[in-house]
Amino acid sequence: MRAVVLLSGGLDSYTAAAIARNEGFELYALTIAYGQRHRREIESARTVARALGCKRHLELPIDLRAIGGSSLTSDTAVPRDRDLAAADIPSTYVPARNTIFLSLALAWGEVLGASDIVIGVNALDYSGYPDCRPEFIRAFESLATLATKAGVEGRQFHVHTPLIHLTKAQIIQQGLALGLDYGITHSCYDPSPDGQPCGRCDSCALRARGFVEAGVPDPLLLR
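The structure assignment produced for this chain is given below.
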């Protein structure tokens, strides 16, 4: 069984990919270089892909900086020390990012003959992005059938979201049970020039809280 895995180099995508591998899927990792200010994550994605034994790791450049609309693809300051319970959608939201990413994964999956796509979205410990919700994933699965030659010919595409209803602590616990080394991942939205995490953006805060609640130290901070 082949699966296209969207691999960012972060904790969530690493865990989702490992779960898929544990279920017997042969992994084809897709990493998108979209002009993100935290390009350090691409280096981590390469390391993660090797650790997972991916059959192939495709790095695809799709520069979204020209579209703008996000502090991750512009010089706009990344929010720090934000209330994680706030209802507003932060400036780190990248317009239609997961729709774009899933579309690219779908295209590659159609070429590979793979009906399964894996994405590490989460709808509990996250920043409120609309394209991380279960209803979005269900809608995309319907679109995949309508929008592809393979779908018209009867192939049923499935988007796997094994983390979508888990807390960050539960995600970490699952990954540790699978023997994952989270020290090779990168989560920070606004790292220093040498790649060190800021410790104050949403992604850093959620990661830190997850390790505390899981009752284990973050190996990234021990290196």
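Interim note for the steering committee: DSSP finds seven helices and five strands in the chain. Residues 15 and 180 are 8 Å apart (CA to CA).
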